[in-house]
Amino acid sequence: MRQAGRYLPEYRALRANVSFLDLCKNPELAAEVTLQPLRRFGFDAAILFSDLLVPLEPMGLEVSFTEQGPAIANPVRNAADVERLHNFDPAVGTPFVLETINRLRPELDKLGPTPLIGFAGAPFTVATYAIEGKTSKRFVETKRLFYTDPQTSHRLLEKLAETTAAYLIAQVNAGAQAIQIFDSWVGVVSVEDWQRFVLGPTKALVKAVQATGVPVIYFPNGATTILDRVAAVGADVYGIDWRLPLSEARARLEAGGAAGAAVQGNLDPALLLGPKDEVVRQVQAIIEQGQRRGHIFNLGHGIYPDTPIENVEALVGAVKNA
Amino acid sequence: MRQAGRYLPEYRALRANVSFLDLCKNPELAAEVTLQPLRRFGFDAAILFSDLLVPLEPMGLEVSFTEQGPAIANPVRNAADVERLHNFDPAVGTPFVLETINRLRPELDKLGPTPLIGFAGAPFTVATYAIEGKTSKRFVETKRLFYTDPQTSHRLLEKLAETTAAYLIAQVNAGAQAIQIFDSWVGVVSVEDWQRFVLGPTKALVKAVQATGVPVIYFPNGATTILDRVAAVGADVYGIDWRLPLSEARARLEAGGAAGAAVQGNLDPALLLGPKDEVVRQVQAIIEQGQRRGHIFNLGHGIYPDTPIENVEALVGAVKNA
Fold first, then answer.
1. Cα torsion for B215, B216, B219, B223, to the nearest 10°?
2. How far apart are CA A242 and CA A266, in angstroms?
3. Cα A186–A189–A190 angle (5° rounding)?
4. Cα–Cα distance between B97 and B157 in angstroms, integer?
5. pLDDT of A60-107, one tens digit each?
6. Is residue B190 within 8 angstroms of chain A, CB to CB?
7. Are A311 and A279 in contact (CB under 8 A)?
8. Catalytic residue among B2, B77, B105, B155
9. Hey, what's the torsion of the CAs at B262, B265, B107, B96, to 10 degrees?
10. ipTM summary value
11. Is the dihedral of CA A100, A105, A106, A107 positive or negative?
12. pLDDT at residue B37 tops 90
């Protein structure tokens, strides 16, 4: 979960001289910030440094990052806007992502057997940015489009699923050994909207990536309440946020027919702001809830910028000693 | 759910000349905006017009409302801040709320048998405002206080539960015939934090209000995933957001030992932005999921400012004809 970031002094130093989007697009620097946390903490896997919105730019949207977060100058609001979005060849539209992966693999091999996880946003989450034009709180424009023009909404999510599949397959071909799909905002949809709009394109995306042979991790943030339905996307691993113990998350996945799936998670990143002994205690509790099978230890959401380094060290130590 | 509000032209007209906080504090105007939606739509019950933050001012916090939402100039961050908060006599600290209720009861009786629902924020949700000083996205300060100083956190939530109990009992004595407790942000806590910090004070508050003889509705927004635990607060009715069908919400409440409780909800307010026939279809589906027993029809969250009036009319018609 956002291994690289502002909680690291070496990241802050590098970011002082380059904008966020320029950093994503510079393979040398993007590889460097991907490696920074690995060198410091010795994590078991690396996750590519990039952003959910990167593929929207070659699709034809004007993406920028402001103090208030991402902004899209020409958001998608109707059928004509959706038609205007185009598929792109990742080698042409996002060559810097593939080059970052090319650079990373030999460096990661030097650190020992450290697999690289590629990633992208899920169709629904990327659609919310495309439609709202920013990080939303209530997703009013997204839902308005869903309910007033379901055809266009379907078309948008299908198009995003197709484009994202090509983008992720290119990451695998460049050297990513697993893929994580982030559905950061899917917690705002009802069961009916999940079934009607979200499940189909997400499932198609997962399947297309799995056809390359790599495992797919799907992170449905905020959607543990409908995890039995979420299980239908067919991922190999489900990222679980901190709202539900892993043992119960696994039971809901099993109820949804995903008995063989692994779980990933789920320490509340806010716990890393507290005392170290509490971090260790919670790590141990989560490992017990993970039942010591098919469990990738992780945070339940992105790490906070003001997380003390020594708490991350305590976390890694507690996981390795468990 | 926010019956009065900016979606009503008569509310916008009244608000043009008065600030939000002044409106909350003016019994004549607060009663008027409480009645506006009743006159227009003939709802079966009225909900007092007020705000979750109203009791924080007489406790000693400097509350204001800006374009960006509520702001507290002197947020609570440590033990000394918590000690400085004081209980208050609602007749002295919030006389305008009691006078609004006094004015409303005869007016509501004229509209037919229309009960008045009083309300307040739950201890956790009010605590997040007191600690963060604003509407938060990640609740970092709240969780930091929980994990670094659990004693002070307990004391704050207990104090808020005590103050809120007195505030709500005063509402009942003034004429409120039911009470709704809004836990708008409780969806961000883990099961452990729920058990450790939130459940106790919330349960105590519910019990104190029930001792007056009126039913208590508890709305744990975003927490359907742990509804079996939430059931331990002992409310008469649970408000359910739109993320889970009512039939499943009821099953989770029953699993948590609240088999006799009623449910309230749960149309996604965003649906009211779409076509009218879709609103009617969804209302009918929700009434079926409510199993025609112990179900108060409601939205799953507050109504949006740009909701078309005719969609609310269609909703009310569909509920009454169902």
1. -110
2. 5
3. 140
4. 23
5. 999 999 888 899 999 999 999 999 999 999 999 999 999 999 999 999
6. yes
7. yes
8. B2
9. 90
10. 0.92
11. positive
12. yes
